[in-house]
Amino acid sequence: MYDYAIRFEQDTAPGLAVFCRDLPELNSYGDDKEHAIREALDAIETTLSIYVDQRRAIPQASPAQPGEHVVRLPAVTVAKIALWNEMMARDMRKADLCRILGLAQTQGDRLVDFLHTSKMEAVETALRALNVKLRVIQEAIADPLDIWIILPESRISSGFTVRQLVQAFGDDRELVVGKDNAKQDEIKKHSLDFILRGFANAASRNTRQSTVPVIDALVATGVFRRSRMVDPETAREVDSLALI
After folding, report:
1. Using one digit for the tens of pLDDT, what is the confidence trace for 128-180?
2. For residues 89 and 117, what is the distance between their CA atoms, to the nearest angstrom?
3. Is the whole model's pTM more than 0.70, yes or no?
4. Positive or negative torsion for Cα 113, 77, 49, 40
5. Where are the domains of the chain?
6. Which of 25, 89, 142, 187 is 20 to 30 A (C-alpha) from 240?
């Protein structure tokens, strides 16, 4: 329903411009296609914020056309869209939602703030207060390389596809997980965490991204497995992630 399709156009400068038929306000850019895809989620969520600021209902996604790439939004983002659209259908304002939920204005505003990471439970509570129930439908993704992995430790929702991570492995079949909380330029370049920070929002590059939920999600795709390997830098056996 809200899996928006984006298209790429060669810009006058080096790189690709990104557009979305369903969200004409969206305007993004990438150095190349992979970079453009990584930036697309942030661009979509920023565009959704424009609809909130202008008090407009958010449109549903139309089927992808040839040459377009589908961006699958995180479940909590979809829940926020459902909440906002229900508010628009009832001509409600944020202050009305706060009164119904008994929340302070700041807390209520965050429930429809697409640039703020909210807990799904909080958004579900707001929907229930409006007599709206979310229904989760399991849908298999034909190619596991197209599975979208969310980085929950990124301050603004971001993530990557399994395909992007496989490509980032390069000639390596196994990488050190990396559990260092140091800044990005101080961590091991041969670690999974270093790669994942590259997929995170710029504001979160100094936050460790190789967390348990992310590793669990990667293993669940069937493309990776947990392993142990000798760290080439320290010569010690450490946790690693290997391609199957």
Report:
1. 999 998 887 776 666 888 888 888 887 666 888 999 999 999 888 999 998 77
2. 24
3. no
4. positive
5. 4-71, 75-129, 144-243
6. 142
